[in-house]
Amino acid sequence: FYDFKYLTSVKIPNGVTSISDNAFYGCTGLTSITIPDSVTSIGRFAFYGCTSLMKANLANVKNVGDYAFADCAGLYEVHVPVVEVIGDCAFGRYSQFGSAPCFTTIELPSTLKEIGEMAFLYNAKLGSIVIPSSVTKVGDYAFAYCTSLASAQLPDNMTTIADYMFGGCKSLATVNLENVTKIGQ
Asked: Do the bridges between strand 114-115 and strand 63-64 make them parallel or antiparallel, or are there none, so unpaired?
């Protein structure tokens, strides 16, 4: 669907199990997408640059690929109740002239294992984050330049803060470092 800028709404049929890499790349007019419970995986750049997309209900999605929703400036609501992996820059700003999604909150579930590098890079409206204890890896720059991020709750088992994990988070007032043994750059 690359360069289908006038595509406004998509309903993925039940039975589809994955949305492939680049599937809706650059569909700037796409405002709504209905993703059935049968979809468990979203590929790299699947919705990259869909600047008008407003909501994403990823009810049964376990893997959100790298850059899947990067530069989706209009994305203000995301639900990921069973996600296991959030890929690199999945909900961040990728291009120099792009804009990250604008959701203020995201509930990370206890199924989550990995948050990729730059996963939420430049999400200027994200106000707080609670990282569940199931997370074993958080990539560099994961929450960098989330300028409204005021609090970050880390799990007790997190011992390392990745490089620039909270770099440029000028509103960050509270973060628990009780069990942290290594803080990156």
From this structure: unpaired
What string of H, E and C letters represents the secondary structure of 1-21?
A: CCCCCCCCEEECCCCCCEECC
Q: Considering the chain, what percentage of its residues have pLDDT values greater than 90?
A: 86
Angle at the Cα of 132 from the Cα atoms of 129 and 135, rounded to 5 degrees: 110
pLDDT tens-digit profile of 78-100?
Answer: 999 999 999 999 999 998 888 98
Model pTM score: 0.93
CB-based contact 162:138 (threshold 8 Å) = yes
Ramachandran angles phi, psi of 97, nearest 5°: -105, 0
Going by C-alpha positions, the residue among 109, 87, 83, 102 that lies closest to residue 43 is 87
Mark the ranges of the chain whose per-residue pLDDT is less than 70. 1-5
Q: Say if CB 38 and CB 61 are below 8 A apart.
A: no
| Angstrom distances, CA of residue 134 to CA of 20, 53, 73, 170, 176 | 27, 29, 29, 27, 17
